[in-house]
Amino acid sequence: MSVGDVVVVDVDMTVLIDLQFATMWIPPLRIHDPDKLAIVMDHAVPAPTIKDAAGGAHARKFASDFGVTCFFDVGRHGICHQVIAENGLARPGEVLACTDSHTCAGGAYNTAARGLGPAEVYSIMCTGTTWFQIAPTIRYELEGVKPSVVSGKDIFLHIANEFGDAANLNLEFGGSGLAGIPMHDRRTIATQGAEVSADFSTFEADTVLAEYFDGPRHFRLCCRQPRSRRDLSGCAPDRSQCIAAVRRATGLGQPQRSAGV
């Protein structure tokens, strides 16, 4: 596969947010797999309009009709990226889709996570697949040790200031300095990929990530079994068709870059 090729991938987790149900919602006749769906009440809680309140009712009926158990209703709700992080919805080597533009936050977990339009997410819900066009990848090699006073946002702002936007490109973060970047900072950096218009914003899997997934303490309301360290040991990026395509494209048309931390 090369830059410009179109690849069709299986989607491991599709996250539907409340706005999906409040705008021109059409109940589907069937869905691909309820265990690969999550619903998060997010943007409009408490409901500010009658339309949003009706959307909540649509979401509850949909979850009941199709047996979607990973449902974060009002009271369990929150910003979808935080809910995804706390409940093990983004896992290494997998593909995640959601309508929110900052879905790339899941890249902190070595997940190929991307925000897509409502119509495409609806299609994934029904078919379990989607397509991507392979874009060139910029890999940032993080070097050095992060000072305690430097945050993930500082690192991102430095990269954005030095190298500008990444429209129609993928970002990948690795290097010897990665070991000193905690998960919360990785999430910040991955999330901000949307601000430079990157397609994907992904961190490589390493020991820090493996330790994060070691125990259930990080997953308060987990509806998916988190991967163990043993599972992660074989979870190179090429476990996912999409990430495999991204990695094969690395360096094509774009230089590798180093960023001191």
Query: How far apart are the termini?
Result: 33 Å
Q: Can you give the helix content as a percent range?
A: 25-40%
What is the total domain count? 2
Overall mean pLDDT stands at: 85
User: What CATH architecture of the largest domain do you see?
Assistant: 3-Layer(aba) Sandwich
Please tell me about this protein's structure.
The protein is an alpha/beta fold. The chain folds into 2 domains: 10-130, Aconitase, domain 3 (2-Layer Sandwich); 137-260, Aconitase, Domain 2, CATH 3.40.1060.10. The chain contains 9 helices and 11 strands. It has helices at 18-22, 50-66, 80-86, 118-127, 152-163, 183-191, 207-212, 229-233, 241-249; strands at 6-10, 13-17, 37-40, 71-72, 95-98, 112-115, 129-133, 137-143, 170-174, 201-203, 257-260. It has a 5-stranded parallel β-sheet with strand order 4-3-2-5-6. The chain has a 4-stranded parallel β-sheet with strand order 10-9-8-11. Strands 1-7 form a two-stranded antiparallel ribbon. Helix 5 (152-163) links the parallel strand 8 and strand 9. It is globular and about 50 Å long.
